[in-house]
Amino acid sequence: MTSTNMNNPTDQAHLDRLKRIKYRANHRGTQEMDIILGGFVDQEIRNFDAEMLDRLENLMNETDADLYQWIIGQPGTTQCQDVELLDMIIAYQRDKVRSGD
């Protein structure tokens, strides 16, 4: 019997990590962030390497209030530490709104 990728503990750990991230992104606590961040993660996570996943998890540690203010362009009490990733989320949301999805 040959082994498959699913039998590799490292691959399983990666898949488990993706599931946890997706769950966290879609169950933030506010409906707005569930939609924005959850949609972004559902769409983009398959393209992320381990470093990007680390960055995403760090960003997801921010409060919904701060994330939402940054995304809609309102000045907040804190500054985003990962502007590049935040810009990716903003671009995703802007494209989604423009396409009417």
TrEMBL record:
Pfam families found in the cross-reference section: Sdh5 (PF03937)
Keyword Chaperone found: yes
Gene Ontology biological process: tricarboxylic acid cycle
Keyword set, alphabetical order: Chaperone
InterPro entries referenced in this protein's UniProt entry, alphabetically: SDH, SDH_sf
Family, similarity comment: Belongs to the SdhE FAD assembly factor family.
Name by which UniProt lists this protein: FAD assembly factor SdhE
